[in-house]
Amino acid sequence: MTMLCKVSFVRRCTTTLSPVVGALASRQKHTLPDLTYDYGALEPHICAEIMQLHHSKHHATYVNNLNVTEEKYQEALAKGDVTAQVALQPALKFNGGGHINHTIFWTNLSPNGGGEPQGELMEAIKRDFGSFQKMKEKMSGATVAVQGSGWGWLGLDKDSGRLRIAACSNQDPLQGSTGLIPLLGIDVWEHAYYLQYKNVRPDYVKAIWNVVNWENVNDRFATAKK
Q1: Is 81 known as a binding-site position?
Q2: Is the pLDDT confidence value at 52 over 70?
Q3: Of 24, 82, 169, 196, which cross-links 150 as Cys (Cβ 3.0–4.6 Å)?
Q4: Which candidate, 85, 92, 46, places its Cα nearest to that of 69?
């Protein structure tokens, strides 16, 4: 039975679930965001093969699985099947987090990146870490130290107005896990670096600073403070 047939069937059989069914019928599917640069544009720091596989395969898989999981979740809501809803939560978190994290990650990178941030972001970094170099060392250390797969983040604590470094396991989204608003993320899943850097994660983390898009991070900082 197609999704359209399923929705029509549910509409004929019940009126009490009509708002949920309407949401199911109108929900826009998530899509893989386009990159603003070519796969090879970040070389020699991140090779084209890694970027192509990372974006067109890994991120695409998170998007596809998220759409499938959300579809199943909406069906479970429509049926009032709480057991199924609970069982789908881990997949929603994993694939939704993967989509959120990577969508930020691609914009955090630029072939014209590197150097140091400017303006209010730089002032906040100096205030909260002492210097840009100290922030860089602290974030690099936390990122390299992630056990297994995960992410290192620079985020904003909205309540205190302070910048903080945090690490998240797997694809756990930063804001959902820590409450911090994500500004800059470094992906340390092996698919992000293994083809080029093998098991030497510190070399990858050191190299990625050369392509950090500080303009994007600064824009995120300005938005997060509002």
Answers
A1: no
A2: yes
A3: 169
A4: 92
pTM value is 0.87
Q: Which two tokens stand for residue 156?
A: 């904003």
Binding residue per annotation — 54? yes
Cα dihedral 203→209→213→219 (10° resolution): 120
* pLDDT tens-digit series, residues 102-134: 999 999 999 999 999 999 999 999 999 999 999
Residue 159 is labelled as binding a ligand: no
Q: Is 45 annotated as a binding residue?
A: no
**Cα 153 from Cα 135, distance rounded (Å):** 11
Nearest residue to 56 (alpha-carbon basis) of 28, 33, 37 = 33
Sign of dihedral through CA atoms 91, 92, 95, 98?
Answer: negative
Over its C-alpha atoms, the chain yields an Rg (Å, rounded) of: 20
Residue 32 phi, psi dihedral angles, 5° rounding: -75, 120
Homologous superfamily assigned to 45-225: Iron/manganese superoxide dismutase, C-terminal domain (3.55.40.20)
Tell me: pLDDT of 86 over 80. Answer: yes
